[in-house]
Amino acid sequence: MLFVLAFLLGLSLAQRPSNLPLCDYYAETQYGSNTNDTQAKLIIGIVSLAFGGPFNLPNVSTELTGILNPGKFSDQSVDLQPYFNGSIDSTNLNNAPVGINWLDGGGTQPLSDFLTGKTPQVVINNSTNQ
Asked: Which of 115, 129, 126, 123 is CA-nearest to residue 52?
């Protein structure tokens, strides 16, 4: 797995001029211009993909599940969602373990809506823990 990641990183670096930072290059490549807004959109997309997964996006590996979805690592099932949805006591509040639903603002749906183009930004209500 590490070899594949290193190989892909090497390919991506080979395509970009060595004097151009990654964010500058990929903001231009993905969004047509290199501005603060397109760089922010690029980073939001990367974080949304990492946490929420590919949401059936084209050209994204089915092995990528996202941190908030069940997946596999070394043939072992992994599900980190209970640490975020309040079903286990994983947060320290006043020196006591408590379960807090950090996904009460729609879970991965705001991430999916952004990645699939339904919303121009990740929209999360300020009154949620999310």
From this structure: 115
